[in-house]
Amino acid sequence: MVAKYVMLADTTRCINCKACEVACRAEWDTPLGYSRDWVKEVEYVNAKGLPEVQLFPGRCQHCDDPPCVEVCPSGASWKREDGIVLVDHAICSGCELCVPACPYDARWLNPVTNTISKCTFCQPRIDKGLQPACVETCVGRALIFGDANDPNSEVSQLLKAKEWQTLVTDEVNIGPNHYYYTAGKAIPDAVMPKLNERHLSGTLMENIVNPLGTLGIGGMMAVFLGAGIKKLIDRRQDVSNKEGSHEQH
Amino acid sequence: MQESNQSGKASRRAFLKGIMGTAAVSTAALSLDAQARIHAPHELETLKDYEEHWGFCDMCYWRCGLKVRTRDGKAFKIDGNPEHPLNRGVVCGKGNSGIQVAFAPNRLKQPMERTGARGDNQWRPMPWDEALDKVAHELTKVKEKYGPQALVMIGHGTWEKPYHRLAHAFGTPNTTSPVFGLCCGPRGVANTLIAGKNLTGNETIDLENCKYFLMMGRNITESLHNGETLGWIDGVANGAKVVYADPRYTITASKADEWLSIRPLTDHAFLLALIHVVIKGGLYDKQFVAEYVTGLDELAAKVEQYTPEWQEAITTIPADTVRRIALEMAQKAPAVFVYSPRRLTRTSNDLGTGMSISILNSLFGVWDRKGGIFTPQTIKVPEIDLPEFPHAHVSREEGHGDFDFAHNPFAVDVEGKIQRADGAGVPGRWPLANPQYGLTNEMWKAMAEQDPYPLKALLTAGGNGFTNSTDYDTVRKALLNMDFYVAADVSPNEMNSYADIILPEASYLERYDDLQIGGAREGFIALREPAMQPLHDTKGSWDICKALSQRLGLEAYFPHDSVADMLDDRLKKAGYSLAELKEKGIIKKPADDAINFPREMGGKSVFPTPSGKIELIPSQLQALGMADAIEWAEQPRPKDGEFHFTFGRVGFHTHARTQDNIWLNYFMPENLLWIHPDAAAKLGISDGETVEVKDPKGRGGKIAAKVTPRIRPDTVFTVHGFGHWDTRMTTAVGKGLSDSLLASDTREKHIGSISMGMNMVTVTKV
């Protein structure tokens, strides 16, 4: 069976020590000011009037139905069979259409490479049998990564043992593969995905330009083909006319 | 989809072929699927090769085991050594940022001599030989004029040891490390007096199995040490109840079942009331007390007055809460733990607070029990053979790189020998203070006042006296008093900007250091080896001290040609070798329940006090006439318009030394002043506005406010370590406000350690 990679974050074990973020930066040499992962600290006053803090480590959610892949005009953004959403840097033009398409703000233009950067679940590491860098260094062991299709994996066991939530709303429900355990607490709005207004241009690409492009390429080929046939007919006509005229002369 | 799973490298040519293939197919094959748009195998990144080197961390003082990954001769990633018991393979944000210590562009890169005024940062680079000659010459001059005791050596870090040795060989007893007087001294003294055992440094608590944590301001998730924090989180996940007492709602509070918003400086009162309830209610471990404890009746009489109602007025914690906690803990005992703050230097009577914690733990019978305090395993590694230190009346305990009170806890006078200038361990002055580490706060005062005798030369190895102490004027005066000051350091900071000569140290990724010998449930010896060659013209501290010892005629104290030879020598004396240690970076003695938890396993506990028992009223205190230390001492309270001033840590900074690390500064470029919404409203302060904080002496400055319910209305808080002014600290300079300006520099009355929490401040909108 093909693997389905998922990330679990037990927020009760996260302490916002930033180990994951720095490990990711060191591992993938991301430029300062940008990060492939993050920890959101949300503070609020609860129903009893007491302060509360929740911590949400996050990164690309490697969605089942990723809009970043849909809007990508070059096909650089793609999804591997095991569920990992990747960017092919050889193809990525850095057009940034995928950036607002992601409701989790997980993508950004790397100013050094001029291509899009994001969490890859440390694909080169996991292909070698290692854990993602953030998971390996996580001080509270709050992050757990693995193959949800393997019934013996730690993530499969944990997914069964505890109540997990995903960051989905009525508006954004695209099958994230990043799960959160909050010991029953509701996930604050601040952490929830938001449809980015700038995503409109991406939607335009997704729903109109790409189909149009598809049609366009077909149309173009049809035009070329038509043009070729027309040219052939015209040529024949031309020749026959000339022949005719010759005959006339 | 089929191509997408191919992991082989797709060449550019294959990609182009794919494009052409795509172009060749009919329009019908083009779908909306992006993968179909590019009908070619995608390029997959592969992991490049790397080498691994062993180390232990230098980003804080817990010292996790590391594997440092290098490529092309340069370190690029720090991982945890999974075999190391202090971190079990994990490394925090600070540890991961160690790479930027080595690669910082503003590192101290070559020896330098000061050319301008002290603190003005005008320097001339010089060759090593010239620098070392000059240091030896200047130190000798001071020795000839004032005697060897005129040299003060202040160290901080994993690389201070050879400097301590050099100073002792030179003949001065005046070597200190801030860890005692400015941080955890009182808790160590308290445990040593009561149980004869140290309980600080690397904690020996069976965290995973504990069932009830009473955290007295121990912000274990933000003042974090990996293995300890992980063990605690495991304990909480295993169902331990957590009661967290702190004026501030920290991340630790967010993991707790209950947050007690206790008034600053009053932990002692709360703990005394708990002791009162535990004794009066017979909630203590009667069998343990009968067999192992002395002084219960006397203590009962002393705490008679400290009722839960009495403490309520002081701490603002309801009396019923105290009674309930005492009962809950008794029900879970001995798998319970009253957790001391690590930095117990806050009030005028930190010894009383520390003793109360130790007493409660003892009454619950937690020593040598599962879920309580365990007895660590150790591997004895003899020190190299050295001549006796000729002059110092106390010598550093050489066998232990770590904070350790186990040997020579309280120094006694030896006729005819020079007494320490800070009074640590000196009868009639601060006999309870540990002379191995000294009272750094008192040493700064001694240097500033030139009392009790001239102190004219200073050698520092790391540390920053300005930001770890609490009175800039004292530290500045002390530094200006020196005939000669030599600073050995990796990075620039305010203190070393006052040096005459700077000796640049190799970072901990570029050098060997002495062995790490530790005691957890497993005993261990760990290795630090260079992961790469030094990036600059720097040296490790052993090489620097060896070179200095040769110039000072003290070469007998540094007999090995290289650090590696010294390590091998030490290891061979213990029956191992450097080659063996290099295999896993660590040599371990396995955990053993019979040794870790003797009473759980039917054995006996050992308490090396004078009576051989837990002494609730310590005989050593009685002998010193200090048995009243257990009594509550009134603490200052804010007048109308004033606030308690508190400071603390975040998980991604260590003290004042990581704010200039570009990777860590990214998370918090400056600190904020936490203030409660009610207090802020009264003063007209909105979130994010700049305010001015001042203490009664007029010290202070401007800082942005964070208006949050996460703090008591009578208290303000800020994160420690900001407000740097050294222009060489290019990332941190000028950002935030230093808490060291506002913390008090009064003294704990029994030990002489600093009391930083006694200042009240005013806050005004700017």
UniProtKB/TrEMBL annotation, chain A:
<feature type="domain" description="4Fe-4S ferredoxin-type">
    <location>
        <begin position="5"/>
        <end position="34"/>
    </location>
</feature>
<keyword id="KW-0004">4Fe-4S</keyword>
<feature type="domain" description="4Fe-4S ferredoxin-type">
    <location>
        <begin position="51"/>
        <end position="82"/>
    </location>
</feature>
<dbReference type="InterPro" id="IPR017896">
    <property type="entry name" value="4Fe4S_Fe-S-bd"/>
</dbReference>
<dbReference type="InterPro" id="IPR017900">
    <property type="entry name" value="4Fe4S_Fe_S_CS"/>
</dbReference>
<feature type="domain" description="4Fe-4S ferredoxin-type">
    <location>
        <begin position="83"/>
        <end position="112"/>
    </location>
</feature>
<keyword id="KW-1133">Transmembrane helix</keyword>
<protein>
    <submittedName>
        <fullName>4Fe-4S dicluster domain-containing protein</fullName>
    </submittedName>
</protein>
<keyword id="KW-0411">Iron-sulfur</keyword>
<dbReference type="GO" id="GO:0046872">
    <property type="term" value="F:metal ion binding"/>
</dbReference>
<keyword id="KW-0479">Metal-binding</keyword>
<feature type="transmembrane region" description="Helical">
    <location>
        <begin position="208"/>
        <end position="227"/>
    </location>
</feature>
<keyword id="KW-0812">Transmembrane</keyword>
<dbReference type="Pfam" id="PF13247">
    <property type="entry name" value="Fer4_11"/>
</dbReference>
<dbReference type="InterPro" id="IPR050954">
    <property type="entry name" value="ET_IronSulfur_Cluster-Binding"/>
</dbReference>
<keyword id="KW-0472">Membrane</keyword>
<dbReference type="GO" id="GO:0051539">
    <property type="term" value="F:4 iron, 4 sulfur cluster binding"/>
</dbReference>
<keyword id="KW-0408">Iron</keyword>
TrEMBL record, chain B:
<dbReference type="InterPro" id="IPR009010">
    <property type="entry name" value="Asp_de-COase-like_dom_sf"/>
</dbReference>
<keyword id="KW-0411">Iron-sulfur</keyword>
<dbReference type="Pfam" id="PF04879">
    <property type="entry name" value="Molybdop_Fe4S4"/>
</dbReference>
<keyword id="KW-0732">Signal</keyword>
<dbReference type="GO" id="GO:0051539">
    <property type="term" value="F:4 iron, 4 sulfur cluster binding"/>
</dbReference>
<dbReference type="InterPro" id="IPR006963">
    <property type="entry name" value="Mopterin_OxRdtase_4Fe-4S_dom"/>
</dbReference>
<keyword id="KW-0408">Iron</keyword>
<comment type="similarity">
    <text>Belongs to the prokaryotic molybdopterin-containing oxidoreductase family.</text>
</comment>
<keyword id="KW-0500">Molybdenum</keyword>
<keyword id="KW-0004">4Fe-4S</keyword>
<dbReference type="InterPro" id="IPR006657">
    <property type="entry name" value="MoPterin_dinucl-bd_dom"/>
</dbReference>
<dbReference type="InterPro" id="IPR050612">
    <property type="entry name" value="Prok_Mopterin_Oxidored"/>
</dbReference>
<feature type="domain" description="4Fe-4S Mo/W bis-MGD-type">
    <location>
        <begin position="50"/>
        <end position="106"/>
    </location>
</feature>
<keyword id="KW-0560">Oxidoreductase</keyword>
<dbReference type="InterPro" id="IPR006656">
    <property type="entry name" value="Mopterin_OxRdtase"/>
</dbReference>
<dbReference type="GO" id="GO:0016491">
    <property type="term" value="F:oxidoreductase activity"/>
</dbReference>
<protein>
    <submittedName>
        <fullName>Molybdopterin-dependent oxidoreductase</fullName>
    </submittedName>
</protein>
<dbReference type="InterPro" id="IPR006311">
    <property type="entry name" value="TAT_signal"/>
</dbReference>
<keyword id="KW-0479">Metal-binding</keyword>
<dbReference type="Pfam" id="PF01568">
    <property type="entry name" value="Molydop_binding"/>
</dbReference>
<dbReference type="GO" id="GO:0043546">
    <property type="term" value="F:molybdopterin cofactor binding"/>
</dbReference>
<dbReference type="Pfam" id="PF00384">
    <property type="entry name" value="Molybdopterin"/>
</dbReference>
